[in-house]
Amino acid sequence: MLTMTLHILALETSSSLCGVALLTQDNGQVQVRTLEHDATGEHAERLLPMVDSLLAQAGIGRSQLAAVAFGQGPGGFTGLRVACGVAQGIGFALTIPVIPIVSLLAVAVRDHQPRTAMAPTSVSVVVQDARMGEVYLAAYLADADAASGWRELQAPVLLNAAHVEHWLQQTVPAWRAVHGVDLAIRLAGDALQAYPELTQLQAGHGCVLEQGSPLRPDASTIARLALVAWHSNGGIAPELAAPLYVRDKVAYTTHERQQGMGGNPKAQVSPVSILQMADEHLDEVAAIELSVQSFPWTRGNFADGLKAGYGAWVASQAGRILGFCMVMFAPDVAHVLVIAVTPNSQKKGIGALLLRHCEHEARLRGLPAMLLEVRPSNLNALNFYRHRGFRQLAIRKDYYPAAHEQREDACVMEKKLDAT
To answer: Rounded distance, CA 123 to CA 134, Å?
Structure first.
């Protein structure tokens, strides 16, 4: 039987650590070679020479690469642009896919401690130093059912370091409600070293708080996560690759900071809850739909869906509806009919939270797959679903209404669901 040797190049420059890794998979064996240099402000001049040096050491030509991965952040603004730009350039030049990997996930993977069957479920909360008294924060749960082997519980956000404990105490109850009261929180990331007070936090609610290691993301872990992504979805086109920024403004004046400015309004302190959609939500749901769609569903469409018994939920935070989804559960598939997030709450993990809930409900019903349609022109949505394990199944001609009384095709996408 013929076997393919796979080479993936990985770049990580979200911190002061400039790293390059070359992963080779051959006959089921994986080897990773790395080069690293730790210095601030030198990524742009060092990254490509390090790539060439590593490929030369391995005796691998650029044309033999199957994909190029990069740590997309969050992290230093310039570093993120360097890694993304180099990855895109290599992808375009070689006509190979690019695989963006969230840098905070790499820290969770590096710090992961396998649990025994009797140990409490552990949530990895990554806190990376963002300077100016702030941290980049994300939360992950090791989950064999997820495409990457990890489930994102909190998308990366920017938070004042002094607010992490309050964030934990508000968020932990929602996690316990979903994952059980026997829960441990494991803190990891270099912010533990930058802000030693984080090692003294209390999660509250009877939850165990474990101290992990003050790690940074590295190219080797980015490469290993990229290998999983490669086998799951094959990566994305170079033009779709982008850094993950969570800081709305890079620099604040002294006067602005004295007024309490800084940080990022995207950081969620109050947890987001998933609630059954009810008639009382329909006005807000219809308003969100109108704000994000050129040809929106009407309030009556949503009301009809509820009457028909479709699965329908809203994402609520502090009494405000941030997003919603509606699913038709057929005998052999869960069909996601509509999912949307209000514009000022997008790119905060709300859509991913709703989609995970749909998957959970589909698994509870024993369904093997999820199905949905996306406009080919909606590149952000296509990228979003591909990153979450969906693959294009077919094209439906003239499915959507379009401007000037025209019609637009639909990409039919499917995700296979493993049994729980």
So the answer is: 21
